[in-house]
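Deliverable D4.2, example record:
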Amino acid sequence: MADETSFGRRYAAKLLTNSASLLVSLVNVSLMPRALGPAAYGTLEFLLSFFQSATGFWDPGLSTALFTKLSRRPSDVGLLRVVGLYAGLVALLMAAALAAVGLVG
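Output generated by the structure prediction step:
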């Protein structure tokens, strides 16, 4: 019985967060093009698409593996350190790429 309640709560929380994300996305889609103008909005879309593709490339299923391993060994903090270090490294790489794009123009 406790599992059903836990599942229901998790499902409701996931549904709520997805709904909130949808609302924020709708607001962004309706306001961003008008606020930025066509050229700046095209550049923004290009950069967002590039960085989403790049972060997808640099995530070799590590987040899925982390959750699988943590479910087996919840007290293992070594896994969290490795994944945190890798995520930090990817974030620094993306920040450096963004800074390079900003400098080049």
